[in-house]
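Troubleshooting entry. The earlier prediction with protoporphyrin IX containing FE gave an output that would not parse, so I re-checked the input for stray whitespace and re-submitted. Clean input:
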Amino acid sequence: MDPIIAATHTDPYSYYASLRAAGGLTFDPQLNLWIASSAEAVCAVLRHPACVVRPAHEPVPKAIAEGPAGRVFGRLMRMNEGEPQRCPKAAIAPGLQAIDRQQVEALVKARFLKDGAEGLHQAQFIGPTSVVAALLGFNPADSRLISELTGDFVACLSPLSDATQLDAAHRATEQLLTFFRERIEAQDNPLLARIGQGFADADTNSLIANLIGLLSQTYEATAGLIGNALLALIRDPALPHTLRADPTQISPLLVEVQRLDPSVQNTRRFVIAPCEILGAMLNPGDAVLVLLASANRDPQLNPQPDVLLLERPNRRSFSFGTGHHECPGQALALGIAHATLDILVERAPRLDRLAWRYRPSINARIPLFSDRPVAKAR
Ligand code: HEM
């Protein structure tokens, strides 16, 4: 095991505990990475001004820098520091936080879900991004297409993608740009208008890039939250009954799953100035792998960290990050996942008929479900 393989390993959590026991911030010479595994180290790195989101020599990954996906990537708040992060965040976060939960629920519930693994795929990957597209004013057919294009775009964020996937990401970016240009011109959506007001007129490229960013940030992370909540139901067969009998338990389940088995297992920071963090000396050019999932299970952060507890007083979690890059979509993600789980639980799916494996990734923990072949009756 290593801290990157851990993201998609069946049980990375005892390994994370061994990393914490060896020291919260240690250097891994094989990976050439600092590894932050304790809650204290994760918090210190994410809040340190000398630890930034992109390496100084490569603000945009070389593999995509020359195409439209690279130009969008280079404008994302998630991938920037200073004004190019602060301005889009200030323009977008208040609008996201004001989204009405009932509107989200209605949008999720308006979509028909097929039974079995196909329905789960829709619920995890198509549904959440379609909801965000619909909130920005796209009609249902376009929202679905936009969701699929976002699936192609997010490939440009992963170093595991091959040339064909990167080509598809560039093509999808062109289409997303056209969709958003037309949407902005229509001037008929209150959320988009509110967000647009926060951007200067000359900043349309940044506005559109960061709207695409909302879709791409939703796509994998929310798929993982929904999938990992389903895995919790598969692992504890009493849970589906508990939730069906008392749907108010869906919220506590989701917030506990996002702590216990988060969809974003790690993130990275790059050191731009010499600094000392928890007694370790870090130098410009160093990179830190920040194990959010390990910090959540640090007993210093949460007592009984390895147990799924619906009633957990003062639950603390790094699953949505911390510091100035903290996720502005947390409430929206939980709202979408809640409405989705509500439908799935109500339908009493045959969870025993599902097989699953994690989607290959260096940081996201997203189960993909398939239907088990039904044994033929003799
Ligand atoms: C379960 C679902 C989600 C999870 C686990 C999640 C997690 C995260 C994390 C960990 C970060 C910080 C990354 C870092 O500091 O390196 C982040 C940032 C971000 N997230 Fe989310 N996210 C989720 C859903 C969403 C949704 C639904 C949206 C918007 C519609 C969103 C928008 C963003 C944006 C724009 C950023 C960048 C913020 C910045 O750089 O200032 N996320 N998210």
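This one parsed fine. The first helix runs from residue 13 to 21.
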